[in-house]
Amino acid sequence: MMALMHRHMLGRSIRYLRPLPLLSFIAGAGAADLRIGFIGLDTSHSVAFAKLLNEPGNSGHIPGGRVTRSWKGGSPDIEASASRVDGFAADIARTYGVTPCDSIESVMSDVDAVMVLSLDGRTHLGEARRIFPFHKPVFIDKPLAGSLRDAIDIFRLAQQLHAPCFSASAERFTSDVPKLKQARIGHLNGVSTFGPAQIESHHPDLYWYGIHAVEKCYALMGTGCETVVRVHTPDTDVVTGVWHDGRVATVRGNRNTRYAFGVTEFGSEAVVVGEQAEGYEGLVTEILQFFRTGIAPVSHAETIEVLTFMEAADESKRRGGIPVSLAEVLRANGGADGI
After folding, report:
1. Cα 79–chain centre separation
2. pLDDT by residue (tens digit) across 220-265?
3. What pLDDT shows up at residue 59?
4. Mean pLDDT estimate for the chain
5. DSSP E strand stretches across the chain
6. So where are the chain's domains?
7. Of 25, 204, 221, 339, whose CB is crowded by the most CB atoms within 10 A?
């Protein structure tokens, strides 16, 4: 009964996140390279994505789109942004031939699609308000927003303005995930993922870097988590989630530990340890497919639950490590009554 109540509540809270209508210009896109705009150049993702798209001689080159215009952005109160944005912007213009623009609107006026790559999730809602009126497909890099409330507002705005968008971590699309999905393990009882989890003071703890391990967990478990509980120390976070059907998953976030990602899958017939996989090729391939079809590889509902999972982990920490309901956290952040 509680599981049914949870699914009903979560369904009500995100009913506005139904699939967006396919825009005719997307459906009519041909074989020509899509012109892609970058918003925010203060993350290494901007250079990595430009290399994959704009460098045909690169062995990892992904055809079908080319970055043509960019807006630098940047957040002066985040050192990782302020100290790197000018260097990344210069590299993208010089090495990959991307035209720098003095406004978001200038970028949007002459591209087919856009990637919001701003490092600071707090800026994404304001950027979305300027981007979505152009009705072009948008990828928003992780974290979707600086808070669950802002994330809900972004998807509500996308629905209102018929702006196709999605957000995801690259770890959702690394090579280990499809192999684990195809592994013969019987009934999936749960997974355990791990990855780096540096904390940035302006964001909920797991939003900044722990989101990668959380997204890999959701790529295998799917939605339906009801409660989470978090153990926190200076070097480690361990978050345990219980799903509505009794499955259990754990996400371990590491600090002061070797940089590595990994996952173990627990089934009724086998336990499988996944390979340690990284890279952006899978994510960029999915983004280009989305730009051409308008069909997001990750639903708004799932993204909202991922962020709710992480917000609930923060609430568990604040309450001394007791279990916290995702439905309660969603309600507290304006998501319980739909739009």
Report:
1. 22
2. 999 999 999 999 999 999 999 999 999 999 999 999 999 999 999 9
3. 87
4. 91
5. 34-39, 65-71, 99-101, 113-116, 138-141, 165-168, 188-196, 225-232, 236-243, 248-254, 262-267, 271-273, 324-325
6. 25-170
7. 204
Nearest by Cα to 304 from 241, 240, 224: 224
pTM, 2 dp? 0.90
Both structure tokens of 224: 């339906």
Residues in CB range of 328: below 8 A, 6 or more apart: 312
CB 237 within 8 A of CB 252: yes
Question: What Rg, from alpha-carbon coordinates, does the chain have?
Answer: 19
Residues 6+ apart with CB under 8 A from 193: 213, 214, 216, 217, 249, 250, 251, 252, 261, 262, 263, 264
Q: What is the pLDDT of residues 133-185, one digit of tens each?
A: 999 999 999 999 999 999 999 999 999 999 999 999 999 999 999 999 999 99
What is 25-170's CATH superfamily? NAD(P)-binding Rossmann-like Domain (3.40.50.720)
CA angle 52, 208, 118 (to 5 degrees): 50
**pLDDT interval class at 100 (50, 70, 90):** very high
C-alpha distances (whole Å) from 294 to each of 19, 28, 156, 278 are 9, 11, 17, 26
